[in-house]
Each structure stands twice: as structure tokens, then as C-alpha cells.
Amino acid sequence: MEKMLLKIENIYYDYKENNDLLPVLAEINISVKRGEFICIIGPSGCGKSTLFNILVGLEKPDKGRIFLKGEDITGTRGHIAYMPQRDLLFPWRTVMENVLLGVEIKKENLQKAYQEAEKLIPLFGLKGFENHYPDQLSGGMRQRAALLRTVLTHNDILALDEPFGALDALTRTTMQEWILSIQEKLDKTILFITHDIEEAILLADRIIILNGRPGRITDKLKIDLQPPRCRTDKVFVDYREKLLERLSAEDDFNKNTETSRRE
Ligand SMILES: Nc1ncnc2c1ncn2[C@@H]1O[C@H](COP(=O)(O)OP(=O)(O)OP(=O)(O)O)[C@@H](O)[C@H]1O
Ligand SMILES: [Mg+2]
After folding, report:
1. Ligand found nearest the CA of 16
2. Quick check: is 8 in a domain?
3. In angstroms, rounded to a whole number, what is the distance separating the alpha carbons of residues 175 and 246?
4. pLDDT at residue 251 in the model
5. Domain count, the chain
6. d(CA 137, CA 154)
7. Which of 174, 191, 183 is nearest to 39 (CA)?
8. Residues 6 or more apart from 121 whose CB is under 8 A from it?
């Protein structure tokens, strides 16, 4: 059997509020191969960001383990690069100072990281903007700077939580093409949360659908489409229909269970 880079095994998680337990994730199993691009899609509140917080060790699961190359990394940090949903560049730091922040926090060699950042800056479309401040950048540039900061932490796996969520449609399309080129050039494995079905079909080798409360995996779909993927191709449109169907079927399911709970 092919060796998995990352294994998420039977994760359960409850938020603890006062004396109440709010079940957020249940029975989450995901195996990831090196070089895969995995999109996680699901309605607001189903636990996607919580799953990433657990994955990168910011939260501990109540049950289940995370294995990286066979090593148990559950609840420990620094193994997976993370770009959180609301990733903020510090407004008082220049692009370069922001980009080096992750390295600074990890107390790695700053001089080496600086040289590497200089090399990567053109690839991230930030050449000439090293000494600019975030409010002097476009939305796309800010997201690329945040991504460069994530990449510089030297992990094989990038966990990106809706990195293009706040961008306009045109910038978003450019960024989608760009991230695929980055993945190939830098040889990364990517876990990517999105609300956008088309974005998921454009980017993913596999799409994982998370749904319900607590969030469970209700579907996994392999996307068999050669690059460059085109939104108007028949196969692409078929995938979109299939995903829409599966997501709305889940919605009905949620509504039904809510009604029956109320009755
Ligand atoms: N700090 C917290 N304390 C208590 N409950 C929380 C906390 N953070 C999140 N939750 C709850 O956990 C659930 C999952 O939240 P999470 O942020 O993981 O969802 P999500 O799928 O990322 O949603 P979105 O698509 O809106 O980003 C939500 O129902 C939310 O109310
Ligand atoms: Mg979220």
C-alpha cells in the first residue's frame, strides 16, 4: 500500500462552554498522499476551521490522532504550515517584516530566511514591494504575502483556510492559477478550505465534504480532470452539478433532523 504523508484518524472534538459541550467534529478520517491538493468544502459552522486548528496543534482533539509520516503529532505545533481564515498582516510591519514573522516566532535562522524570502518574492508577485506596508498593497498581494509567510516555515504541508475568500472574482481566478503553479514549483501538499464549489473543482485532486453538527465527512470525491481545467467543459459542469446535489441533499438532511428534533 502507498505510504500516506498525513493521517487524520477518527477525530472527535467538542467545544466546552460553561458546563455545556457543543459537539463540533465527529469521526473525521482523512488520509493524504504527498503532493495531493485536497479541498474541504462545507457550510458555515460545520467545523472546517476547527479541524485545521486541531491539525496544526492549536487545539487538542477529544478523541483521535494525527500522524505525519507515521509519527504521532497530535496536539503539537510546528509540523504543518498554517494560514488561518483571518490572517492578518501587521499594518506597522513592512511586507518583508511580515513575511519573516513566522520564522521569527519559530526562532529559526533569520538571515537564511531573509535570503530565501528574497528569492521567492518575485514568484509571489511582490518584487519591489518588500518595504511597502500592507495598506499599500492590493488584496491579492496581501494574500500572497501571507502565503509566503506560511511557505517560509518549511513544512511539506500547507493548511490554507479560505485564503481567497475575501477577493473579487477576477483576482480570485488569477490566484487560483497561481497557487497551482506554486504548489508544483515548491513541491507542497495542500489542504485548502473553501466555500466555493468551482474553486474546489479547479484546484483539487480530491474534495472532501464536511456537513452537519457535529461536522462529519459526508462525501469524498476524486476530481479526474487534466490541467488546465476549464469551468465550461462538460466534465467540469457535471462535477459541479454532482457537488451541488450532494451539498443540497445534506442541507435537506440537516433540516429534516432539525424538524424532527423540534417535534
Ligand atoms: N471559541 C469557540 N467557542 C465555542 N464554540 C465555538 C468556538 N469557535 C467555534 N465554535 C463553534 O464551533 C462550530 C464550528 O466552527 P468553525 O469555525 O470550525 O466552523 P467553519 O466550518 O470554519 O465555519 P465558516 O465556514 O463560517 O468559517 C460553530 O458552530 C461555532 O459556533
Ligand atoms: Mg472557518
Report:
1. 1
2. yes
3. 27
4. 63
5. 1
6. 25
7. 191
8. 99, 127, 130, 148
pLDDT over 90 for what percent of the chain? 83
The ligand minimizing its distance to the Cα of 45 is 1
26 grid coordinates: 465527529
Atom of ligand 1 nearest to the CA of 53: 18
Contact partners, residue 216, CB within 8 Å, separation at least 6: 25, 26, 27, 28, 210
pLDDT tens-digit series, residues 38-94: 999 999 999 999 999 999 999 999 999 999 999 999 999 999 999 998 878 999 999
With contact defined as beta carbons under 8 Å apart, do 123 and 73 qualify?
Answer: no
Taking only the tens place, the pLDDT of each residue in 210-231 is 999 999 999 999 999 998 999 9
The environment of the single-atom ion ligand 2, i.e. residues with CB closer than 5 A, is: 48-49, 85
Spatial distance between the Cα atoms of 126 and 56, rounded to a whole number of angstroms: 27
Q: Which domain holds residue 55?
A: 1-80+198-263
Q: Is the model's pLDDT at 258 over the cut of 60?
A: no
Strands 6-17 vs 63-68: parallel, antiparallel or unpaired: antiparallel
Whether 177 maps to a domain, the answer reads no
Pocket test for ligand 1, best of 46, 161, 199, 211 (most atoms within 8 A of CB): 46
In a domain, 237, yes or no: yes
CATH number at residue 46: 3.40.50.300
Is 157 inside a domain boundary? no
Candidates 17, 20, 22: which one to mutate for ligand 1, based on the most atoms within 8 Å of Cβ?
A: 22
